[in-house]
Amino acid sequence: xxxxxxxxxxxxxxxxxxxxxxxxxxxxxxxxxxxxxxxxxxxxxxxxxxxxxxxxxxxxxxxxxxxxxxxxxxxxxxxxxxxxxxxxxxxxxxxxxxxxxxxxxxxxxxxxxxxxxxxxxxxxxxxxxxxxxxxxxxxxxxxxxxxxxxxxxxxxxxxxxxxxxxxxxxxxxxxxxxxxxxxxxxxxxxxxxxxxxxxxxxxxxxxxxxxxxxxxxxxxxxxxxxxxxxxxxxxxxxxxxxxxxxxxxxxxxxxxxxxxxxxxxxxxxxxxxxxxxxxxxxxxxxxxxxxxxxxxxxxxxxxxxxxxxxxxxxxxxxxxxxxxxxxxxxxxxxxxxxxxxxxxxxxxxxxxxxxxxxxxxxxxxxxxxxxxxxxxxxxxxxxxxxxxxxxxxxxxxxxxxxxxxxxxxxxxxxxxxxxxxxxxxxxxxxxxxxxxxxxxxxxxxxxxx
Length: 449
Ligand code: PLP
Description:
alpha/beta; Aspartate Aminotransferase, domain 1; Aspartate Aminotransferase, domain 2; four-stranded mixed sheet; 15 strands; 38% helix; 16% strand; binds pyridoxal-5'-phosphate; transaminase activity; pyridoxal phosphate binding; pyridoxal phosphate; aminotransferase; Aminotrans_3
């Protein structure tokens, strides 16, 4: 469809006048007006092309416009668009079985939701009911979704707006963030040990018998890809086992190949009791989330009613989309591609660090990467601090504007630039994107002191 300038203006006005945009002041917004997208690219209504370097919200893992998904969705809709979640459908059973196959053997059953926050809400409910305890321990530098329970469990400042009404029973501890380790530590392993010891102390003060679960992102996402050093997950599992606490992995962003394995927590070889997923499960083509449940928890509800439910749980069309997306991950060998390109990306960014003094730290696992910009490498003063004000964002906003001007969409937050493109990106496309980031970093370099 072609649009006149008047049509385009109308589309813009309808959006801005009659819809609310997430996490932003509504005045002065200038969002991209998206028209179409294919592969790693998207085009706006003026025909400008953007390379998508964060897979939108780290979810469009198979790239845009894959017609195999469209066909699977259309076929499912022609046959059966919807039945209530109390009925059997082929799409639901197929997907449950496949999720059980790609997760660890102890995770046997899925409860389907519409997205990540709902997966977390339901995992919290399950953990509380199963243990008979109420507290949930999580990390300050984490995000688990925007609904009341999920945002309370996250430590991200996005929760400040609802702090006074937050879900009771949340306990936060500091991350094993080696680049800025809150404890003296000379190695990542030492930082991990100190962080785990602090977590255990705090659980002691909180009464271990009141703690239902510890929640960790499978690999840290929007807080800045704060990698878990070796040993951390193992220590957290030990704490759980010692005190009868469940371990919940939030794989909403880190799942489905993003890190080169199916799930971020797969890198640590540790058993989890509940696993939350969303985003990459359908690669954003339709809304879907899931909580995968340990066999013992699943059996707990053999003789007790499961107190969970959603009108759209196990929506057949979303389940069919997910099955098609899982096929595509496998057919296109995406896990392998992510592992290879993850190393390539790491090497390329390490080169860029030689040219750009504003890059303080760079962290990636596979195609889940983050540049952390600083004003000074020795003091590590961030280019913009955690929860930066508009004023403190002045330089980063210029960097972000340059990135957009040069034809890239990616997630820029505080002093962080995310590099998390679709998992089937090619080396050439990755290079194109890195060239844009490199040009934009020149602005940040001028503010290094
Ligand atoms: N958990 C993590 C780790 C996330 O990154 C997000 C979203 O960014 C969520 C949960 C929430 O998912 P949703 O936005 O689908 O509710």
